[in-house]
């Protein structure tokens, strides 16, 4: 124990109960800014990270899913720019570049070792990379294994999909959208900006008929699948997606690839794994679209707009009266894919583990999409195993390194693995960190995470711009399907979108987007992950702050209460008792979180058995927010706070809006049922956090 403390103290700062600060005197704009990176290293910090010292009954500064605190974006971005500039210009940073102070990667090796011109899911190139990564793990002395899945994916047919305008083919259509409906449709074109729900609502307000239209939308802001789902809900006949030059700096004929499954994993084995030709009755995901969708190039979109209107690409709404014909003829095929794993086993709680994962495949070169992440994965494994061999570092808990295949088709490899261990993973796996798309620019640092990880991330890098975790984040199924606290972060650009899903995702282009500092940024990203990892696997108590969910729940309860109490919601006036039950469930969670803080304060944290009991209570929280009342086949993302579907608190808020507006979709009885089930899910989470059955505070 003493040796482990000494080792980790050296890694973090050399002395116990200390922290490193560094001041940045100038950022890119010449303005003064300040950044503090704090990394404490002993028991006091363990207690604070689990809520001691913070009044969980005061909510003057609530934490929301989309942000850590109320700092302005300008301040946050300025501070992050300062960090990056110091790395770029090569000045030493206390607590980052010195191995004696903190976790430090060596000079990061070129990522090209894991680059490949062709490594689509299930291809020989994909398999070669899998073998290379497996070989590296074995060289490091790690225990390794693989799993294989037979999954169904879409590939282009023998001839390209077609888009006809005025009876003529509009350019070449080499890109495609996997899992699109396979149909030929025709209809008048309708421009709908980004295809957001608000964009379609605006069209309705302008009395524009969407029914049967071929909707033309820009890429960006939300996933392709969400755009198509929004269009289908408005009875559009098809969707065309193009990269607008306002957002993308790519060639006019560059094709765009993606998928439109409103979910993750193999959509033809929803909720269960596709291990070893597993035979089940025919099934398909409810997230598969009913309408066809296709990407087109800038040149194709320009031709359509030039022939139909005089408004340029920056227009917001535009009705195009000429006819478009669209034919999608992708081919559904079965592919064998492999996930590759290596593990560093903990010396004390080896049956408790975190996972660090990276997508391995890509549609094109995929340099930023998969090569950088795979390189980081291997380098982190090498660095930590070296610490164990050379520095005597002993992680208390295990670390699994995972290389996923078929990520381009919606985290297929990762989700199939999660589905294979659905009932047990969140009992043993306490965190997931994604390395996908960690670098696509250099002037903005963003992160998406479980509220349980907010404080750990904030303590690792004091200024962080948080964004909601959504379908486009590869960590999303871990968080919302399996109930595992997850983290995804990225260095990105605040101007043009990076050309993911195109042949322009190359090492040369990434260098341009990062101002020729890709390797330095990769090293920085690796060190951030390394620091987070060491805190999660070494400290006696898990660095997961259960108190952070109190504000998230309270925020939803406040929204629901304001709508229920609204005079305009007359039809709900008789159901105030339901709101009372929800508030009681919220109170139960608040008290359970406070009780855990008290238990930590009053416990001997040198007692490993006592720490394990407390950690077990902490680990139950995220998984308990998964609704037990919905089928994973129908609603994959079951998390009632961060997931999607009618079971979520966000859906309750939206349903109240529908009731208030008198919409046809409103259903009072259905709302009451959803309300009751969501309420009991929160109460169940409070019960799980409370610990033993005799300690539960159940007022419902």
From TrEMBL:
Instruction: Tell me how the protein is altered or processed after translation.
Output: Stearoylated.
Q: Where in the cell is it found?
A: Cell membrane; Melanosome
Q: Which keywords accompany this UniProt record?
A: Cell membrane, Endocytosis, Glycoprotein, Lipoprotein, Membrane, Palmitate, Receptor, Transmembrane, Transmembrane helix
**Organism domain of life:** Eukaryota
A biological process (GO) of this protein is: intracellular iron ion homeostasis
Its record classes its membrane topology as: Single-pass type II membrane protein
Task: List the GO terms this entry assigns under cellular component, sorted alphabetically.
Answer: external side of plasma membrane; melanosome
Where do the segments described as Disordered lie? 48-67
* Location of the Peptidase M28 domain: 339-486
Q: Which residues form the Transferrin receptor-like dimerisation domain?
A: 582-689
One molecular function GO term is: transferrin receptor activity
Pfam assignment, any one:
TFR_dimer
- Segments crossing the lipid bilayer: 72-89
Q: What InterPro entries does the record point to?
A: PA_dom_sf, PA_domain, Peptidase_M28, Peptidase_M28B, TFR-like_dimer_dom, TFR-like_dimer_dom_sf
Its biological function?
A: Cellular uptake of iron occurs via receptor-mediated endocytosis of ligand-occupied transferrin receptor into specialized endosomes. Endosomal acidification leads to iron release. The apotransferrin-receptor complex is then recycled to the cell surface with a return to neutral pH and the concomitant loss of affinity of apotransferrin for its receptor. Transferrin receptor is necessary for development of erythrocytes and the nervous system. Acts as a lipid sensor that regulates mitochondrial fusion by regulating activation of the JNK pathway.
Q: Which family does it belong to?
A: Belongs to the peptidase M28 family. M28B subfamily.
Partners and quaternary state? Homodimer; disulfide-linked.
> What name is this protein filed under?
Transferrin receptor protein 1
Annotated organism of origin: Cyprinus carpio carpio
Upper lineage: Eukaryota, Metazoa, Chordata, Craniata, Vertebrata
